[in-house]
Amino acid sequence: MKSLPPVRAKKKVRSPDRGSLLLDEEELHMNERALAAIGRVLEGYTEPPGLDWPKHEKEEVTFSHWALDEILLLVWDHPWTLASETIEAFAMKLEVFAATAVSEDQRRIFAVAAETAWEMLEEVQLLEF
Predict the structure, then answer these.
(1) Cα(30)–Cα(127) distance, rounded to whole angstroms?
(2) Of residues 71, 127, 60, 76, the one with CA closest to residue 94
(3) Predicted local confidence at residue 29, as pLDDT
(4) Cβ of 44: how many Cβ atoms within 10 Å?
(5) pLDDT for 52-95, tens place per residue?
(6) What's the CA gap between 76 and 54, in Å, rounded?
(7) DSSP of 4-28, one letter per residue?
(8) Architecture in CATH of 28-128
(9) I need a surface site. Which of 1, 33, 62, 92 has the fewest CB within 10 A?
(10) What integer pLDDT is reported at residue 51 of this predicted model?
(11) 3-state secondary structure (DSSP) of residue 26
(12) What's residue 9's pLDDT?
C-alpha cells in the first residue's frame, strides 16, 4: 500500500486567553472586533468595588461586570452569528427578566445588566459597519 505524502497543517490559532494570534492580525473579522472591544471594556473592571463605596454603586459595578462576562461568553460561543444579534437577544432576555421579576432586588439586577448590554450593543454596532 502506497503511503500518502505528509499534509502541511495551517498555523494553529490559539485561544484569546493564551496570547491569541486572532488579536494580532492587521484586520480583524466579524466577531473578533466585538470580542476585542468587550475585552477592553472588561479591563476597566480589574479592581473590585471598594468597601467605602455606596451599596448601589457596588451593585451596579458588579451587575455590569456580570453582564459583560456573559456577553463575552455568548459572542464567543456563537461565532457564526453577528455579535450585535447575540447581544441584542441577551439584552431583550434581561428586559423580560426585569419585567417579570418577583422582587425589587431581582428587577434591579436585571435592569442594570440590560442597560449594560444595550450600551455594549451600541458600541458593537459601530464596529460591525
Answers:
(1) 9
(2) 71
(3) 66
(4) 11
(5) 888 888 888 889 999 999 999 999 999 889 999 999 999 999 99
(6) 33
(7) PPPPPPPPPPPPGGG--STTTSSS-
(8) Orthogonal Bundle (1.10)
(9) 1
(10) 78
(11) coil
(12) 46
User: How remote is the C-alpha of 107 from its chain's centroid?
Assistant: 22
What is residue 83's predicted lDDT score, i.e. its pLDDT? 94
All 3 cell numbers of residue 112?
442594570
Q: With beta carbons less than 8 A apart as the criterion, state whether 42 and 120 touch.
A: no
* CA–CA gap between residue 59 and residue 40 (Å, rounded): 21
b/e map 53-65, b = 16+ CB within 10 Å: eeeeeebbbbbbb
**Which grid coordinates are listed for 110?**
436585571
The CA-CA-CA angle for residues 93, 102, 109, to 5°, reads 55
pTM assigned to the model: 0.73
Q: Where are the domains of the chain?
A: 28-128
| Cell 502506497 sits on residue | 2
Residues in the chain, total: 129
CB within 8 Å of 33: residues ≥ 6 apart:
127, 128
Question: What is the average pLDDT across 117-126?
Answer: 94
